[in-house]
Amino acid sequence: MKIQNIVVASPMYKEIQQLIDPRKLHNNFRYVHEDDLTQEDLDWADALAAFNLKKTFDLSQVKWVHSLGAGVDKFLFKKEWPGEVLLTRTVCSFGQRIAEYCLSYLLKDLQYHQEFQQMQERKKWQPMTPKLLNQQKVIIYGTGEIGQKAAEVLTYLGVEVYGVSLSGKEKAFFKEVMTIETHFSKLKEMDYLINTLPLTERTEHLFATRIFGHLKGAGFINVGRGATVNEDALLQALDEEKVRFAVLDVFAKEPLPAENKLWEHPNVSITPHISAVTTPEEGVDCFIETLRNVEAGKQLTNKVDPLKGF
Asked: What residues does the D-isomer specific 2-hydroxyacid dehydrogenase NAD-binding domain cover (predicted)?
């Protein structure tokens, strides 16, 4: 595929330009803030590299769109994708970062960090025996690159890891992989749920009473997409202690509005979408590698299926 003109639209467009320009690529580049992207830019371009488009554009004029993040829901969710346009996404250290993020909260819970901190504040000496990872059962929703890396890390430490995917296809590092329809009977055994799923019409508000109602005090970690969770159902499950605690890194609306009830719930931990940050260096490296593969007609391991949404 011949790619001559490329628009890069990002809040970090200056940093990205500083990383791309020294590579002295033969392509012509325009760098703009995503708020300033126009249809005229796209009419000029053969390719667009962006992540969070703030407006609706006609993307049929370009040959290729590359997401500067792992997610592509900003391009696909409840939108029609021009079938002839290639869509790719960034693949870098997301799996390792998310695995370590999730592990940190599992250990915080099992080692009673919060409880001991509260005791210290009261100058109270009360021993409690920490629990072991190899006695825990975890179910990970999403068995792609990110979910599989999290499963690998946890399995290495002795955790019994189950997976849920749309296909139910077996994957390495999972004791068993189930479909959404067949996994409900397992939920009562789980100590923790980890969501890594992308946002599609099939996963929107997936995490609701239908899932939470089966739990027996499990911890819930969401590092997938915020809109996969029904927030009212989660709050109800927390109040009913079906969910013991929730760690939330992603939300349907970001930044999370100050009036949102999740901020004040004592059993909710909130982080500002940092579990899998794409550094400019990683994003540029993946983009340039993908550009070279696109121009050479090579197989793309980060190609997105618009019909599946990932």
From this structure: 105-275
